[in-house]
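Annex B, item 7. Sequence and structure tokens for protein A, then protein B.
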Amino acid sequence: MNMSYLLIIFSIPFLILGYFTVTKRIVLKSVVSILGVALFIHFENFQTITNDKLLISIFGGLLVGSGIGIAIRNGSVLDGSEILGVYLNDKFGVSIGKIVLIFNIILFTITAFIISTEIALYSILTYIVAAKVTDTVIEGFEDFIGVTIVSKKYDKIKIAILEELGTGLTVYKGSSGFGSKGEAEDFDIIHSIINRIDIKKMYRLIKEIDTEAFIVEFDVNSVKGGVLRHYIDKKKNKNLEVFKNSISNSKK
């Protein structure tokens, strides 16, 4: 049978699953996407670029992963198994790329016994690459980390982070504790999420203000909402000026 027909036939059960588990909008857009892919497969007539199976697996995985990621990021899928990935991701938080990879490993394990072990292994390699690319496209290329800062000069550090990095922050009220210098007074604990490429700059800013500041850095798996990508205009933001003035007045 023609591959384009098989793609549509095997996607039907997953589209039915999607009708009851995900939004109708995703299902409708997925129907259009799957039909589009099927038509493209049916009529494509590209010339063979290489017969090297390793190159085919790696670059095929890059292209497949990019296509899947772009489709899912915009509320669609390119084949039925990805609907299962969207559902399980929403239900259990497992990355869509991993779900698609596991599904295809099972599929290609069967292929190894029916067709060829070599083809199955190269196909699994393709989807190992595709899974990583898919998750990267869906989650974005930016890598965020969390930072918690404890310092007696917390007001100056807050202003420096807002002015120099332009990222948002959350302040926790810390009660007195006990450290290397004995009992500590009440203070503000600063918590912020920043892009990993800005971490060195943040350390430099804090060091210029307080060389004894206590800093905790930790990985962040998922970030939604808030001020993450320099949305704060560091020069023209009137709210920032109000914030700085409020700090100055509180010190008087």
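Protein B:
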Amino acid sequence: MSKDAILGEIRRGLKRGPLPEDQAMALRARLAAHPRHLIPARSRVPRPEQLALFVRNVEKEYGTVAHVAGLADVPAAIADYLAAQNLPTDFAMAPHPELQALPWHLRPMLQMRVGRAQPTDLVSVQHGYAAVAETGTLVLPAAPERPTTLNLLSDTAIVVLRASRVVGAYEEAWDLLRAERNDPVSNGFMPRNVMLVTGPSRSADIESTLELGAHGPRRLHVVLVDDDPAAS
């Protein structure tokens, strides 16, 4: 069903026609302005504290973080994590140019399949678009170079994230996405979906007992590339 058909059904349910032009103009102006909501003071801190806040919040939500000095150190960090967790050395990896350019040959035991995750994949490696310090949340928009299945199907999700892409508040993450999608292909439209991931999947619905991996990955590991001089 098209968007116009859906909106038409809603109007018929409300027993009204299109909005008067003055109301429609007010709504368009509000959408174009991207108004700010209440931003927690905890995210309004100096840059080093912002990065520390992000790490604390990831760990508070049962995720883990490993710092690396540069992108070249990512394969070793992933190999070390897999060994420490007694996990297999094969994984599905996002077809992102930055990931594919890493020196994987330095860790020949690692075996990757580039593309979407399959239900049988135990480990996935995703490229992090951005993250929000105030809650320790990863921002993962759907894109050909970032398949959404990598965020959902594997038991262990590893996300490679640049420290320079950690922002303080959610509003700043949306600003980043809008600015960087202002191109002839997308014409500024939002991706098909944007996943906001805070820690591994979990639920306490049954007898208030926390169960990790309820609806997605049981482990979430962030490899944080320390590329932001302002954070040191």
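Comment on protein B: The chain has two domains: 1-33, 45-231.
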